[in-house]
Structure formats: C-alpha cells, structure tokens
C-alpha cells in the first residue's frame, strides 16, 4: 500500500456491496451444468489452476461467471505472498498505465480504479500516475476475498501424470506431506518463469561463491550491501529496479552493464495495447506471428523513464553500454568481471538476464516436457529472421493447450487438457495471463475454451439430460382463478 495515502473511511464497504449487487444483476444462467465425476472417493475437479496470482485468480472468476464452479486454485506461497508484487518485484509502481483493466473482466465495480477510489477517493485517483505495486497486491487480495475464490495456499505442485483419462496432480505441503487431487483440466498460471527457470550465466555460477551474486528474482539483503561496489548485468526494467533499490539502500556504487549498444527505449507493450492485437493475434498465420514476436522480443521492455531517473539521480550510478560480461572470478575478496571494455571489480553482483524457456526444468512440466511441440519444430523461420529464443517456446493450440510433437504420442490426450497460461504462451497467443495488459482478452479466451472442451466431452450426457427432461411449465388447462 502507498504509505503516503490514507484509506478512505467506509469506502471499501460500499464498494463491496456494489460488487455483490453487480454480480447478482448479471448472474445468468444460474445453475451448474457439468456432470460430477468421482475418483477414489473424492470429486474430481473440473479445473485445477496452479498459481494464485493475477492470472490464476482472474481465470477462476471467468470460470465462475460461466457457472464452472468445481474449481480450485493452488499456490505454493502463503496467503498474501502470491506473485512477485511483495516478494521480488522492486519497482515502486506498476509499469502499465493506471487505466489498464484486466481481472475485472468488464465489471466496473471490480476494476482497479473502483478499488483505489474506494480506498483513497476520486481525487487521489486523478492525481495518480501509476498504481504502486503494494496497492496492486492489496487490490488482488481484496479481489480474491470479495469473489470468494477457492485458493489452497501452501500447496507446492510437484507434478502431473495421466491416469485413466484424468490428470493426477501431486502437491507437497510445508510439513512434508503429499496430497493428490484429480482433475479434468489443468491451467498453469505460474507467471513469467512458468515454463523455464531464471537464467544465470554459467560463468557466474561456476566462477563465484553463491553468496556473492543474486538473480533479480531472488531475495536480496540490500541493507547488507551498504557501502559496497555493486555490479548489475542486464538491460531490462528489472535490472534497473534492482540497481535503484541498491542505490537507495546506500550502496557505495552501482555499475549497470548491458551488451546492447544503446539502452532500450521503445516499449512494444504500449503498441500491443490495442484491441486488434490483444483479441485477434492468435488467429494470424505462423509467418505473421513470428514476425510480430521477432520484433517484440528484439525491442525488449525498457526501463520506464521514472525508473531510469530513479537510478540516474545518484552520482554513484554508472551504466556501460556495449559491455557484455564474458567471465567472472574471485581475486582475494574482490569479484573480477571480464568484458570487452576491460576488467571491473565489485563486491557483489546482481544478475538481471531474465529467464530461459525449458519445460524440463520446471516441476510442473518436467514429466511431459519431451512430448511437447516447440515453435522450432513447427515453424522454419525465413533466412535472417531466425531466433533460438523463440524456437524454444511451446507451440500451443487455440485454447493455450500444449500440443504433441508427434500425433501418435501416448501423452497427446493428457497434453490436450493442460493449458499453458504463463508468459511462454506469448508467441502463440499474444499477451496473456502473465501480463496485465492482455489479461482481459486472454482470460476470456481461456475460459471459453475450457468450458467448450468440458461441454463437448460430456455431450452425450447433456443430450440424455435433455431427453429425460420432463419438468412441465404449463400445468393447467383450466381458466384462471378470478
């Protein structure tokens, strides 16, 4: 929460009432429609969602709107710690404009603006530039509670297998116990690194003690870095966020290095925020989708202007372009980093080199990773447009489902029921659950596809239900009683 703002007395209670009224008004139809299934004495979940961050919560709400209520969301974090916002995110505000909507799915009383005005007043919203990240987490916490979404915290997902036409999901609790749940559909809403791992160059991992470097995704004791010489590797917004945090916590100096000749300045996310791209990109040909993504990935996401100024205002901040790191080693108690521009010496280094897409390195996907089709296997880029990064991303179906590398793969039926709503869906589906900008369109597309698949699978039962339906609406042929 923004500590400079004071909550508005009574505002949130009134908003809660408005949300309940709005949802009651638009609640149609009003009954569940999926036939229940049991396995081993427990009801099989129609949809299990891994990840209770913004994407997972919004997906559960969209399913609820469609009267798919036999759903559960699982998250390894304790309540309030889901997602990056109060864990490893180090920006002061969100990077998206404040007017961007998403989790609300078009319900005005559920929008971030409605929540913020209820908390702080309409004038505070008008004066606001971007939403503070602490407020965004508080908004998501409120959203979860007001919608009564079924979240099981402290459940670490350890893997999935296919058993007699159902997904068998295994979870580990903090006390070491294991739990099994069966589901018909599985949604992976595990964020930006959901289909891979945060990337640290081999020469860093092999050349430095583990306590002398950290990735931007990790917990960092910035207070312990006071007075130290800090090196930061990376050109993206997160690298600058961490550099700024180190400076604000009293680092002796911070030097940020990037291999590019210039700091990225054009943000493709702002271009992507148009209805055409957000709603219809997945319908494009592979050639066009590759062309879009090649350009978007080349541009990267630059630091916002206020983030750059957050660093640049410190005299002990420096940045070096055209300065990739090529090696790292210890000399005494100093870190020595090699680069084409010469040696640099630091006391601690922070790595902001993003993540690597590799399904085999995630517990959620490792068991079926060898069966999943990748872009590099489904598409051959024109000469000069190759991209090893894009080739490593999964090639998805029209509802975010994984596709098999080979049609006769015995895991093909399982893959058809696992839906990838992580950042790695981007080349196939455009902006999705890991992006606030694309959430509204991505969530609705996902929820529609999940419901479609479940209805088609049960089509014979629905027909039998109709054939046996005998509730009379016309009950009397007599004249009306005066």
UniProtKB/TrEMBL annotation:
Origin, by domain of life?
A: Bacteria
The reply to whether Oxidoreductase figures as a keyword in the UniProt entry is yes
Q: Which UniProt keywords apply?
A: Oxidoreductase
- Classification via InterPro entries: Auxin_biosynth/cation_transpt, FAD/NAD-bd_sf
Pfam families this protein is in?
A: Pyr_redox_3 (PF13738)
Stored SUPFAM superfamilies = FAD/NAD(P)-binding domain (SSF51905)
What Gene Ontology molecular-function terms does this entry list?
flavin adenine dinucleotide binding; monooxygenase activity
Q: Which residues cross the membrane?
A: none
Tell whether Disulfide bond is among the UniProt keywords. Answer: no
PANTHER family per record? FAD-DEPENDENT URATE HYDROXYLASE, FLAVIN-BINDING MONOOXYGENASE-LIKE PROTEIN (AFU_ORTHOLOGUE AFUA_4G09220)
The protein in question is named Oxidoreductase
| Species per Swiss-Prot/TrEMBL record | Komagataeibacter sucrofermentans
